[in-house]
Amino acid sequence: MGTPWTNWARTATASPHRVEHPASADEIADAVAAASHLRPRGSGHSFTGIAVAPGTALDLDRWTGVTEVTGTLVTVRAGTTLRQLNALLDTLGLALPNLGDIDAQTIAGATATGTHGTGAKLGGLATQITALQLVLANGEQVRCSATERPDLFAAARVGLGALGVISTITLRCVPAFVLHARETPGRLDAVLAEFDHLTSVEDHVEFHWFPHSDDVIVKRNNRVDEPAAPLSKLRRFYEYEVLENGAFGLVCRVAKTFPTTTRGLNRLCGKLISERVYRDDSHRVFVTPRRVRFVESEYAIPREELHGVLTELRKAVAKLDHGVIVPVEVRVAQGDDIWLSTANGRDSAYIAVHQYLGMPYRQYFDAFEKIATAVGGRPHWGKLHTRTAADLAPAYPRFADFRALRAELDPTGKFANDYLDRVLGKASATGVDPETSS
To answer: Cys bridge to 342: 85, 295, 300, 324, which one at CB 3.0-4.6 A?
Structure first.
């Protein structure tokens, strides 16, 4: 019996029968071919049960590093974390054009679940992929790109680990760049009024709203041809470790212990925002240390629905039986053509709701999900939601095509688990599940 496993947010657990740690592509293929049920589990940073392995767990912690660099094309092993990749790219004078604010995920796990940053002219991490090497259910190693098995490429870039085990990923990177970072306090209505303009003129813009008030933090990150001028080590330690992790963690623990204080503490946090301006290498700006554990749900909605969804969410928060301590995060992304990308076919706004670990969240997340679903929202594959294959199918134009390809490549459901059965339907040789075909 393998060692019991728990994800970062403690929302998913597993006791796999076996844990494999392959150190080569051939060893990955051998492990896949030998197993009857197998799941790659990444770094466990998904909030859903997507990485739960009911049989064999595949841990790629020994399969890391860059294997090839051709100009700005970089091929990286699937088990490499974003933190490791950013450091390796830095030594090569390269960078990823966009990132989210957490770098603990493996590159394969991050892309397979649709991880993204923010930027109206930029897509999620998976849009930076130019080629994939996968191990299929029978142990066969295949390569796909826009010209080699293009349907597999269109599906597997955000493949949920349902089509095969990713071995290597080739990414189109960019020359390393510096970002000018500016974080300022604001008011929700004012920010919403200018948000379309902000996203059109700023390279990367997002805001964090304290839901029991109108206070927001607005973050603007723009590429500049200037040298880095980072926060001093002391200032960075104070801002991120003392305030954002230490002090905020203490506030969350107080709210958890004394729930009636939650709304007031959330408002207080919103009032304590101060301006922060600096320049630094891109990955040091994009990524923020996150040591306060939370649960999260996120939905991608059509850009034009953002104002209405936040208006309804504001009303819903006011009616909750409990308070919310962690801010709401709002970002944007350009539409893409990846079959199960949450931005497939449309420019999207992303709204993420959070709650401190151990505090009540179900009523809040359910209310948010109902609002987002009503406007055609798509849940992040790695964050908490209750959607099923039956109601997800109409939200994705190529959903049926993905399921048919899954049935072709994994007819016995080797890569299936309870989460995939819920969001994709049970694997079958026909690709047709009665629950999604009616």
So the answer is: 300
Q: Which two tokens stand for residue 375?
A: 């406007």
Tokens 């001093």 correspond to 232
Say whether 317 sits in a helix, a strand or coil. helix
Q: Give the number of other Cβ atoms within 10 Å of residue 203's Cβ.
A: 20
CB 169 within 8 A of CB 265: no
Q: Which residues contact 132 (CB under 8 A, 6 or more apart)?
A: 143, 144, 145, 153, 156, 157, 166, 168, 169, 170
**From 77-91, 241-255, 311-325, the region with the lowest mean pLDDT:** 241-255
Of 430 and 192, which is predicted with more confidence?
A: 192
What value does the mean pLDDT take over residues 203-208? 98
- On whether the CB atoms of residues 128 and 349 are closer than 8 A, the answer is no
What does the angle CA 354 – CA 359 – CA 360 come to, to the nearest 5 degrees?
Answer: 85
> Terminus-to-terminus CA distance in the chain, angstroms?
40
Three-class SS state of 171: strand
Cα-Cα-Cα-Cα dihedral sign, residues 385, 390, 395, 396: positive
Helices 306-318 and 188-201, interaxial angle, to 10°?
150
DSSP calls for 351-393: EEEEEETTS--HHHHHHHHHHHHHTT-EE-TTS-----HHHHG
Beta bridge partners of 335: none
Cβ neighbours for 241, distance < 8 A, ≥ 6 positions apart: 289
Residue of 130, 213, 220, 208 whose CA lies nearest to 181: 220
Model confidence at 428, pLDDT cuts 50, 70, 90, reads: low
User: Can you tell me the distance from the alpha carbon of 56 to that of 227, in angstroms, rounded to the nearest whole number?
Assistant: 48
In the chain, the amino acid numbered 427 is A
Q: Write the pLDDT tens digit of every residue in 80-112.
A: 999 999 999 999 999 999 999 999 999 999 999
**Residue 131: what are its φ and ψ, rounded to 5°?**
-160, 155
CB 45 within 8 A of CB 109: yes
CA distance 411 to 422: 17
Selection from 231, 208, 230 nearest residue 219 by Cα? 208
Alpha-carbon torsion (290, 295, 299, 305), positive or negative: negative
How far is the C-alpha of 308 from the C-alpha of 25, rounded, in Å? 48
Q: Residue type for 217, please?
A: I
